[in-house]
Amino acid sequence: MTVADEDLRPYFQAARTGLTFNSPLGEQRVAALIDRVQPLSASSRALDLGCGTGELLLRLCAQHGLGGDGVDNQATDVTTARRTAADRGLAGQVTFHTADATVWDRPADIVVNIGASHIWGEGPAPALAALHRLTNPFGTLLFGEGVYETKPDAAVREGFGDLPDLAGLVRIATDAGFRVLHAATSTQGEWDDFESDWRAGIERLATPGARAFADRRREEYLDGYRGVVGFAWLVLTPA
Ligand SMILES: C[S@@+](CC[C@H](N)C(=O)[O-])C[C@H]1O[C@@H](n2cnc3c(N)ncnc32)[C@H](O)[C@@H]1O
Q1: What is the CB < 6 Å shell around ligand 1?
Q2: How far is CA 100 from CA 104, 120, 203, in A?
Q3: Closest residue CA from atom 1 of ligand 1
């Protein structure tokens, strides 16, 4: 059996076990981003659509003393998020919902969407249109999204599709009705850590199939999309 013939779901699940965030996000950046996202008032709420296991939302709500809602359609991630909230004494403050984020219609002062624009369709434009409707006036959207750092070759473009560069993503955000308060991309170190930690989760399965899959991903990264595919961090406010 080849790697391509196998059900890859167990590998993707294992990959998540070693990650704090399911994106190239280091500790320094997450702290700085949370500092940049200031609540409008003590009664502001935060909303994370596609929250995964909820780490960023929990840190944000803890630091700013806010209530929050996290929405993800993966029940296992929501269960993990609820358990973490309970462990940190935040269960009464932050609520996690197993739901399709496209049907969420309650706006918030602080909205978060990291690596999950695909919830609303292909590319960042439909996501930014939906997130604009869900961000209160004078509120803040923290948006994390894939971009090209340099021109992709045919193989990378086939794998990652038609991503904008950072300037293009900023134009899409302003076209959607946002002002841009902060725009940056993850460092190479954040990417290397993310890719390594992702593969390490798979390595721990220690099966021939898992090792072959991890080898293939490492080669695709190091020989292909490393330094080409980037990840952008935007802090936006409705214009
Ligand atoms: C790449 S992960 C990012 C998770 C998290 N934001 C982070 O950075 O760690 C994308 C997340 O979007 C969630 N997702 C995908 N489609 C969704 C939908 N229609 N409604 C809610 N969540 C969805 C997935 O379950 C997954 O947890």
Answers
A1: 21-23, 50-52, 71-74, 77, 100-102, 114-116, 119
A2: 7, 10, 32
A3: 115
Query: Is it the case that residue 112 has pLDDT exceeding 60?
Result: yes
SS3 50: coil
Rounded to whole angstroms, the Cα distance separating 149 from 36 reads 24
Distance from Cα 111 to the centre of ligand 1, integer Å: 14
CA–CA gap between residue 56 and residue 178 (Å, rounded): 22
Task: Single out the residue of 194, 226, 200 nearest to residue 214, CA to CA.
Answer: 200
Burial class (CB in 10 A: 0-12, 13-18, 19+), 103: exposed
Identify the band that residue 199 occupies on the pLDDT scale cut at 50, 70 and 90.
very high
Dihedral sign of CA atoms 38, 236, 182, 72 in order? positive
Q: Report which DSSP code applies to 54.
A: -
pLDDT average, residue stretch 184-210: 97
β-strands 229-238, 108-114: how paired? unpaired
For residue 87, is pLDDT > 70? Answer: yes
Pocket test for ligand 1, best of 9, 12, 71, 73 (most atoms within 8 A of CB): 73
How far is ligand 1, taken at its centre, from the CA of residue 51, in Å? Answer: 6
